[in-house]
Amino acid sequence: MQFIRKTLALGAILLCASTNTFADGVKLNEYYSVEIKKLTATLDSGPHELTINVTWNFKTNPSASDYIDSNIIISDIKKFLTEYPSKSDFFEVVNHNLTSFLINKFKGLHGITVKINVPATKLDPYNHYTMVEATR
């Protein structure tokens, strides 16, 4: 049985993930999560300092090769947001596209949830977030 570990690295909080079924019929669902803090993105009418939470789980009984280095996902998210073509899209649209990109890139995933936390601005005086979940 795998253990759940928490690690703090590069401003990201990590939590290990997989799904296993044991001989006694007990099903173990494990998740891996990363929190990216203070990520600046110029989207949705201006620059924003975002916090992004990403949680994913793997298909049942994953092999060692199914596991993903979270730094790769963090790098992909940063690159995706930097190169996002339509800077005026609402964060809901950006998140939809980001989540679709990630689930399609990482074939060993059973599911992924992306939550983008957007702090208040002068134009939009309330903290808000968008959360998108994709599963296979």
Question: What's the short version?
Answer:
With 136 residues, this protein is of the alpha+beta class. Helices cover 21% and strands 40% of the residues.
Topology order in helix (H) and strand (E) letters: EEEEEEHHEE
Which blocks of ≥5 consecutive residues have pLDDT under 50?
1-17
Binned strand content: 35-45%
Oligomer: single chain
Can you tell me the overall shape? Answer: elongated
- Mean pLDDT value: 85
Strand order of the largest sheet: 1-2-5-6-7-8
Folded structure, characterized:
- This protein is of the alpha+beta class and 136 residues long.
- The protein is built from two helices and eight strands; from the N terminus they run ββββββααββ.
- Strands 1-2-5-6-7-8 form a six-stranded antiparallel β-sheet, with helices on one face.
- A hairpin with a 4-residue loop joins strand 5 and strand 6.
- The chain is elongated, with a radius of gyration of 16 Å.
- The N terminus is likely disordered.
Sum up the structure in keywords:
elongated, two-stranded antiparallel ribbon, 21% helix, alpha+beta, 136 residues
